[in-house]
């Protein structure tokens, strides 16, 4: 989804403040139901250490790239990791193993397809049976993409990802703001916070986010492309939480953007839409480029005509991430 204008904290938007005030009672109800569900659910034991990469807001924090980096780090540390997702946007509820050649975004959602390019990936609406299936297939560590508000599966490490620019928004709960739950409540169940900054040199803004005195590890990370963007004019398009982050990243790496086109988060592209974009690109003499997450949602017969620009989360202190992964493994072992 695209963030509605009234989520902006721009002081000049008095109508936005009014809209948030009118919707805030619904936010209180939403927060209350979430808290009750978490409080009253007894998590099922996990068959392997579970690292949850989640967030407190909807859309655009960078949690999937973080999950990919955690998978890479776990493998480097000698583990055999698997990814677990609920399969948002797909018609299948699981539990099942994602097969990129067999399943498409309409079946399992875009994030599981992206994760499956890095490690065995599984979807399951309630996570429990998906974790068991992953372990039965040989996984000895499970990285759960999203699920900080899902209490059904026992977690050994909960990482909360927040964008340093958008932060917690106006600090209000859905639908008045982007928060899934109050910040204090969400952080009380976290083991560490990962602040995603625009670049390695950017100020993480810990004080502004209320993290300066937090008694939890706070790590800085940013999205970094695996390769340089193609030369020549580019027509960039994206259907992610914050498309502008993609365009800014391209520009920062020297890309020549002739035009951009944004779509709603998790948008499933049609052949007609790609044909229209291709015609527009041709008028500029430009190459079509999109995120890796969007690329997996393209119709298979047009993927060859679009360049995917993959990114990964890079950590300012990778050793601290490694230590957190080892902590999750130790916690699981201590539970016996």
What would you say this structure looks like, in words?
With 336 residues, the chain is of the alpha/beta class. The protein has 2 domains: 50-224 and 314-335, 3-Layer(aba) Sandwich (Rossmann fold); 227-309. 34% of the residues lie in helices and 20% in strands. The protein has helices at 14-40, 63-76, 105-108, 110-116, 128-136, 183-188, 243-252, 271-284, 292-295, 318-335; strands spanning 50-54, 81-85, 96-97, 121-123, 141-145, 157-163, 192-197, 218-225, 233-238, 256-262, 287-291, 307-309, 311-315. Helix 9 links the parallel strand 11 and strand 12. The radius of gyration is 20 Å and the shape is globular. The model has no long low-confidence stretch (mean pLDDT 92).
Secondary structure: elements and pairs:
Elements: H1 14-40, E1 50-54, H2 63-76, E2 81-85, E3 96-97, H3 105-108, H4 110-116, E4 121-123, H5 128-136, E5 141-145, E6 157-163, H6 183-188, E7 192-197, E8 218-225, E9 233-238, H7 243-252, E10 256-262, H8 271-284, E11 287-291, H9 292-295, E12 307-309, E13 311-315, H10 318-335
Parallel strand pairs: 1-5, 1-6, 2-4, 2-5, 6-7, 7-8, 9-10, 9-11, 11-12
Antiparallel strand pairs: 3-4, 8-13
């Amino acid at each position: 989804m695209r963030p509605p204008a009234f989520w902006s904290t721009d002081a000049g938007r008095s109508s936005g403040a009014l809209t948030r005030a009118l919707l805030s009672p619904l936010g209180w109800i939403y927060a209350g139901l979430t808290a009750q569900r978490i409080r009253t659910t007894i998590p099922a034991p996990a068959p392997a250490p579970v690292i949850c990469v989640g967030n407190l807001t909807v859309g655009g924090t960078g949690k999937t790239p973080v999950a990919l980096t955690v998978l890479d780090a776990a493998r480097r540390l000698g583990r055999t990791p698997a990814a677990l997702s609920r399969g948002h946007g797909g018609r299948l509820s699981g539990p099942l193993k994602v097969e990129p050649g067999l399943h498409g975004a309409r079946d399992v959602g875009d994030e599981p397809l992206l994760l499956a390019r890095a490690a065995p990936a599984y979807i399951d609406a309630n996570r429990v049976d998906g974790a068991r299936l992953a372990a039965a297939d040989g996984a000895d560590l499970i990285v759960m993409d999203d699920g900080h508000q899902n209490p059904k599966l026992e977690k050994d490490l909960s990482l909360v990802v927040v964008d340093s620019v958008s932060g917690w928004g106006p600090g209000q709960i859905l639908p008045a703001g982007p928060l899934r739950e109050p910040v204090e409540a969400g952080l009380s169940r976290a083991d560490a916070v990962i602040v995603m900054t625009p670049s390695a040199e950017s100020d993480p803004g810990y004080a502004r986010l209320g993290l300066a005195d937090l008694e939890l590890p706070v790590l800085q990370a940013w999205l970094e492309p695996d390769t340089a963007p193609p030369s020549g004019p580019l027509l960039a398009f994206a259907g992610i939480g914050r498309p502008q982050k993609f365009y800014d990243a391209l520009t920062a790496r020297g890309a020549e953007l002739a035009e951009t086109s944004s779509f709603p988060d998790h948008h499933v592209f049609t052949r007609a839409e790609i044909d229209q974009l291709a015609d527009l690109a041709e008028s500029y003499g430009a190459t079509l480029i999109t995120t890796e997450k969007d690329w997996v949602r393209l119709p298979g017969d047009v993927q060859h005509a679009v360049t995917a620009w993959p990114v990964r989360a890079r950590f300012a202190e990778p050793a601290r991430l490694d230590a957190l992964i080892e902590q999750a493994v130790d916690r699981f072992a201590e539970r016996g």
